[in-house]
């Protein structure tokens, strides 16, 4: 499985609209997802070893961010025909097993991933309350294994966004598995 990195942050880029079903079929949109201080939109999936390596810490961090006014949504855009572990049924199972504290949305047409120019899982987009991109970087220095004493890059960046409306100028690209596009 080859790893891939997304481009660096395009500060001020406006969040594209979305309206996607969560694991229970409820439609979730961009506006209703926004927190008082910002929104973290992340592209994840069930099968990716990079996502699996960070998921427990990611859940803890986004829970902490919620208290700071940053909401989170996760979007799964992979083609489940080729990756059955990423099927809506398995998304629901994962969401329930881990009690995910954020909506887990299915981008069946892959149009949202394309609108965001998402390239990998995980791919993080941190927006301020004005829907302006302020962070597009890594979760921390972990790869497929947890890095000891990790730097909490994503958490620190989104905490800064909550406090100032601006993300850090220095950002390190995320790394992960490529989005599994439909043929």
UniProtKB/TrEMBL annotation:
Classification via InterPro entries: AhpC/TSA (IPR000866), PRX-like1 (IPR047262), Thioredoxin-like_sf (IPR036249), Thioredoxin_domain (IPR013766)
Residues covered by the Thioredoxin domain: 9-160
PANTHER family xref list: OS07G0260300 PROTEIN, THIOREDOXIN-DEPENDENT PEROXIREDOXIN
Domain of life per record: Bacteria
Name of the protein in its database record: Thioredoxin family protein
């Amino acid at each position: 499985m080859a790893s891939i990195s997304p481009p660096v942050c395009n500060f001020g880029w406006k969040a594209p609209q979305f309206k996607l079903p969560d694991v229970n079929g409820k439609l979730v949109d961009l506006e209703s997802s926004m927190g008082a201080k910002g929104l973290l939109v992340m592209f994840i999936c069930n099968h990716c070893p990079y996502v699996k390596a960070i998921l427990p810490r990611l859940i803890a961090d986004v829970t902490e961010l919620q208290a700071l006014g940053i909401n989170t949504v996760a979007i799964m855009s992979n083609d489940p025909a080729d990756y059955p572990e990423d099927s809506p049924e398995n998304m629901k199972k994962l969401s329930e097993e881990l009690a995910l504290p954020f909506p887990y949305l299915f981008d069946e047409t892959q149009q949202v991933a394309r609108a965001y120019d998402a390239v990998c899982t995980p791919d993080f987009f941190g927006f301020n309350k004005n829907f302006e991109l302020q962070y597009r970087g890594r979760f921390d220095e972990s790869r497929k294994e947890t890095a000891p004493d990790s730097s909490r890059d994503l958490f620190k960046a989104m905490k800064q966004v909550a406090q100032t409306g601006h993300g850090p100028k220095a950002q390190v690209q995320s790394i992960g598995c490529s989005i599994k596009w439909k043929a």
